[in-house]
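Re: the 196-residue chain
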Amino acid sequence: MYSVIRVFLYYFFKIIFRCKIIGTGHIPSHGGAIIASNHVSLFDPPVVGTAFTRPIHFMAKEELFAVPILGWFFTKLNAFPVRRATADRAAIRHAINLLENGELLGLFPEGTRSLTDKLGKPEPGLAMIALKAGVPVIPTAVIGTNKVGKDGHLLPRFTVKFGRPIVVTREKADKETMENLSNQVMQEISMLLEEK
């Protein structure tokens, strides 16, 4: 089911929104890694997740799974619930297990959508998970998804950019180390957003 939905959405975004994908060569062909993207629209998870062929798992707010059809759809796309505004140990452990088993994990460093269309302050979750699993982080920028239906942009062009992997070694996730990694990830995403 995942493969069928992925292919359908890939061509949907490619044809309807002329989605341009840059830097898929930075996605490792195997092994665990975190795809870390900015977040400005509900389109972001499927747009990022269908830009390459490897399956990816997304952490999504648990409220989405309470809606029957949406919950089913997100589950089929390998999403799993997380309780926001709290340290959801079960979700964090599940994320680390996925990475240790060689899977890709999609996370949004800001923890929620930006309502200003600008990068917000990163939450510590991504850095903590990356440090505990010892996996690379792929900075990712998604552009144009926030323009759908705004300012006369009925079908704006989408762009997804994948940057060079940030190598992360497994080590203690103390406050300073997490802050440094979080800031590095956000700086890389910012540069991708600014590139022409």
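The chain has a mean pLDDT of 93.
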